[in-house]
Write a structure and sequence with these properties.
Length: 402
Amino acid sequence: MSDVAGAIAITGIGIVSPLGRTVDSVFDALVTCRSALAPLSPAEWPHGTPPVVARITEPLNVQRRKGFRLSRTDRLAVLAARDALSDAGWSDDPAGCGLIASTTVGGLPEISPTLARDPRRYFRRGGFSAVTAYQNSHVADAVSEYLSLEGPRFAVSVACASGSMAIALAARMVVGGTASRMLAGGAEALCEFTLSGFNGLQALDPEPCRPFDKSRNGLNLGEGAAFLALEELSRAKARKARVYAVLRGWAMTNDAYHLTAPHPHGSGISCSVLGAMRLAKVGLDEVGYVNAHGTGTLLNDVAEAEGYQAAFRGRRDPIPVSSSKSYFGHCLGAAGAIEAVVTLLSMRASTLFPTLRQHDPLESPGIDWIADRPRRRDVPLAISVSAGFGGSNASLVFGLDG
């Protein structure tokens, strides 16, 4: 890719996940096919069969500040964004940096069900500070406050496509000159309310999930955070920054079909993939890998597979596809950002990480399912795809030729 105005360099990565707190630890887990999925204990989930989740057991130590209460989601975001800022070399001059942060639960995990039973007692016992951290915008507030970011600040919450959309919107702001530097990503903490909701939808697999397998039986929820540092490629080269990859294209679409179910033929997904490729000016045969949304639910996986078959129809070879949720679970508002990091690691290491537990793949002509073990292959260009409730879809095209 030529050094043209609008080329977006990824110069920093920060990740906090059940597989590790650093890029290196996450890579080691991926390349050895180690999953973070495990059931909660009966003591932690006294409501029946404990769900399988991916959770972070290490302490999330963030120095407290007077007048600012951080939820668990906030702490995840601050730690990941701080690492991305440092990795990009911006820690000494953060003021002009902007931020787009995504989440779906925000501070909801901090609010006790006792609020509904006795609100007065709840607030008298200190519940007010938990409620103030509830709104999704608080994540962006917390990161900007703790990292002294004075550039534009936005919060994004469009279900499970939120993390990818945060990155796409940040790239658009850099291209448009709204900010010269942006941090973009998402954070999500495990939440009893969310687990109960997905359980009510009968969407949880009581065992570790197996995306795109014929015997798939649902998803597992996870928690974590990831942020990317974005700037113009010309600026990154001028300051001799390390460039992980170039964000060459992005697209966002909406199914306009159903509140929870995806379009049965994956039309919104295929449109987002094709739109991102058009913006990136790349052809079907140039894409080396797709990091799929891949939840493991009955409807999503079939619809998504159909979407890829439609998007890559006419390609010479089947498109390699795998799902990272078999390692991390579904991290909802953080999923797209975490999976963008996985995509970058795959490209940098010339390694396609497999979908775990995919023993009997869906029959999908035109798709090369990456399963069982990592596959060594150069990946100069890859796409990370996210989809969410309500029909939101987002695709990010990354290239190594910056």
